[in-house]
Structures are given as C-alpha cells and as structure tokens.
Design a protein that fits this description.
eight-stranded mixed β-sheet, 10 helices, globular, Dihydrodipicolinate Reductase, domain 2, Rossmann fold, alpha/beta, 323 residues, 2 domains, single chain, binds nicotinamide-adenine-dinucleotide
Length: 323
C-alpha cells in the first residue's frame, strides 16, 4: 500500500520509520515547512510537497500527523480524494470536527482509523481479553495514571503546544488521552464525569498540566483517571482493572498482575504497538473491514476528554450523551 504522510514533525518522522518496516511504501511527505518535508522524504526516497494536492495523486492512504486541530479537515480532504486515512490522536479537538469526519467516512466508504497504539500493546491486549472473557468477573472499577513530565521548553518550542485553539487541551487532550482511551475500551460507555484540572508547573500555556476525574460507566463501573505533564520525572502509563473475581495491572509497560495466571510476560514497548496498529489499518483497508480502532472509538475518547474539561470548568458532574 502506498502512503503519504501529512505533517513531517515529531510523530510524522516516527510514522515514516514504521512504514519502512512494513509491507508498505512511503511515496510522499507533505508539510507546509517544505524543507522539513524534503528532509524526511529524502530519507525514504519519497516526494515532498507543501500541500496535499501536489503530491499524492498516486497514493492509497494518507497518515495525518498534523497538530491536533488540523486533523479532521485534512482527513476529510484525503477521503474525498479517494484515500484511506490513518489519523493521529486525538481525532480532532471538537466533537463537531469529529462528526464532520465521521460523515465524510460514511459518505466515501473509505477506511479510517484513529491512532491509539496502546490498545495493541501486549499487556493491554491480555487485560482486554481477560475482561471480555469474564475472567475478572464483573468489572467494578478501573484506574489509569498518565503521570508524565514535560519541561517548560516542550510548550515553548512549538507554536501550537499548550494552546486551546490547536492543542485543544493539555495533559489530558494531548498525552492522557492514550490512557483514558484504554479505560474507556475496558469499561465501556462513559455516562458521567466529575473532574478537576489545574495548571501548576508551567507558564504561558492556556491548558491544564494536571487533570483528575472520576468517571461512571453505563455498566455501573467507576473509573479513576489522572493525567499530568507536571509529574517529574514521569512514569509509564499504569492501568489497573478490578472485577469481583480478579484484578489485572499493567505497570512499566509490562503485565504485573493478572488473576489466574503466573505468566506475566516481558516489557512491551509502545513502538511495537504502533506498528501493530499500522498492520491492522492496512489489513482493514485491503479487506474492506472496519479497523480495530474506529472513528467512533476516537470520538468516544474525545467526548470524555471534553466532559472532563466541562466538569472542571463548571465545578459539577457532566453527563455524556453519544451521537
Ligand atoms: N500517537 C502518539 O504517541 C503521538 C505522539 C506524538 C504526537 N502525536 C500526535 O501527532 C500530532 C502531531 O504532533 P507532533 O508532535 O508530530 O507535532 P509537530 O509540531 O512536531 O509536527 C507537526 C508538523 O505539521 C506541520 N504542519 C502544520 N500545519 C500544517 C499544514 N496545514 N499542512 C501541512 N503541514 C503542517 C508542521 O510544520 C510540523 O512539521 C498531534 O496531534 C499529536 O497529538 C501522537
């Protein structure tokens, strides 16, 4: 499958490397910073361009690696040009944008997946299997901790980070959404959120660097979430799922507890998981089946992030309704 990458920044560079180890070809790199596009393209023998039209006539799929608020528009443009689309997280920063993208996907019938590579991480897939198989019994609660650290220079470096208009949020919208997406994947449909956010360890940003929430799910299960970019020196995502017959925990990117088994396995890097999501996307596009992570999944996690912000702002619980 022939790919174009749109956005040759930090994650676009990762996507190019992932593609080089797959049965896929990177044929074009697009970035408004043409020099950046050219540099990345040259490494992989691809073409470079400053806009999508100029370079991607012969590609089958487009990977959107742009700043978050630009995701839906770029994805919609690619869909109407007949391409399959893999879009980085978050799907976009508003539900209106996510819904426009969902409508475009439905109209074009092309494959769209939202990156949530941690769903493919080995300890996570084992926990999900245990949840689905009923091994843990009735799921009663889940806790995710995304206790990261980003220095002030992270926000100062690029114009869009830490802005409401383009990042759309901070520690939760940008980093913690990975962990939140796991909680929602395990526990099901969130129905209400009670949250607090703070800006404690960074300046000149418009967004939170700490967010905490309790989330009630349709099943009755209760989830706890912490997302931070102010937790020095930062730790890998920790996920605990509790049921009335068992518990499962991922810590330090390894399965550390799974009731009923002593085979907990090795550390599992997220780069391997990102590759696994690419494989799923390519297979889904070729087979005409839905990808493992759909736009509806991306929308649900985004809706939960936005409910956290609304609850923190309003100082009261917020109910979630699905489209
Ligand atoms: N899945 C993950 O683990 C992961 C990790 C990092 C970033 N991301 C996501 O990837 C996205 C990009 O993040 P990043 O860190 O690579 O950002 P970045 O700032 O490093 O790169 C963004 C690139 O987009 C280019 N760009 C901006 N506007 C453009 C436009 N209109 N057309 C073409 N190019 C344009 C910029 O010149 C820049 O090269 C974000 O949404 C972020 O949330 C995901």
């Amino acid at each position: 499958m022939r790919f174009a990458i749109v956005g040759a920044g930090a994650i676009g560079t990762v996507h190019a490397r992932l593609l080089s180890s797959l049965d896929a070809e990177l044929v074009a790199v697009v970035d408004t910073d043409l020099e950046r596009a050219q540099q990345l393209a040259d490494q992989y023998g691809a073409r470079a361009g400053a806009d999508m039209d100029s370079v991607y006539s012969d590609v089958d799929a487009v990977s959107i690696c742009l700043p978050s608020a630009l995701h839906a528009d770029a994805a919609i443009e690619a869909l109407y040009a007949g391409k399959h689309v893999l879009v980085e997280k978050p799907v976009d920063i508003t539900l209106a944008a996510a819904d426009r993208l969902i409508a475009a996907q439905q109209e074009t019938g092309r494959t769209v997946s939202v990156i949530s590579q941690r769903r493919f991480q080995e300890p996570v897939t084992r926990i999900k299997q245990a949840v689905d198989a009923g091994t843990l019994g009735r799921i009663t609660s889940g806790i995710v901790e995304s206790a990261f650290y980003r220095p002030q220079s992270y926000y100062d470096g690029d114009g869009w980070r830490g802005t409401l208009a383009i990042d759309g949020g901070g520690a939760l919208m940008n980093q913690g959404i990975h962990a939140l997406d796991l909680l929602v994947w395990m526990l099901g449909r969130p129905i209400s959120v009670s949250a607090q956010t703070g800006q404690l360890a960074h300046e000149n940003i418009e967004v939170e660097d700490v967010a905490a929430a309790t989330i009630t799910f349709e099943s009755g299960a209760i989830g706890l979430l912490l997302a931070s970019t102010a937790a020095y020196p930062g730790r890998p995502v920790r996920l605990s799922i509790h049921g009335d017959r068992g518990t499962a925990v991922m810590d330090d990117d390894r399965l550390t507890v799974l009731t009923g088994t002593d085979e907990l396995g090795e550390q599992s890097p997220t780069s391997v998981a990102h590759l696994a999501q690419y494989r799923d996307f390519i297979a889904a596009a070729q087979e005409g089946r839905p990808p493992a992570v759909t736009l509806a999944d991306g929308r649900r996690s985004l809706a939960t992030v936005l409910a956290v912000y609304e609850s923190a702002r309003a100082g009261r619980p917020v109910e979630l309704k699905e489209a």
